Amino acid sequence: MVGAIAATFTAPLGLIGCKERSSELTHMSRWIIPLIIFVLLTSVMAMVGMLLGIPTLLENFRH
Predict the structure, then answer these.
(1) Which end of the chain, N or C, is less packed with Cβ atoms under 10 Å?
(2) Helix (H) or strand (E) holding 40
(3) In sequence order, what are the residues at sequence separation of 6 or more whose Cβ sits closer than 8 angstroms to the Cβ of residue 41?
(4) What is the mean pLDDT of residues 15-26?
(5) CB distance 48 to 35 below 8 Å
């Protein structure tokens, strides 16, 4: 899951993948959309208990 979060930010910024494509992206495509995805993925990870030190937020996923 950490790899998915890392790829969410590195690809639009041109750190990995096609640098020409990343230069054509708008501010929203480079920063806003990856930030929304990061918040979404982190929230889901917190809900199911995948974040260390944070208890599971949903009862169904507790042991």
Answers:
(1) C
(2) helix 33-48
(3) 1, 4, 5, 8
(4) 70
(5) no
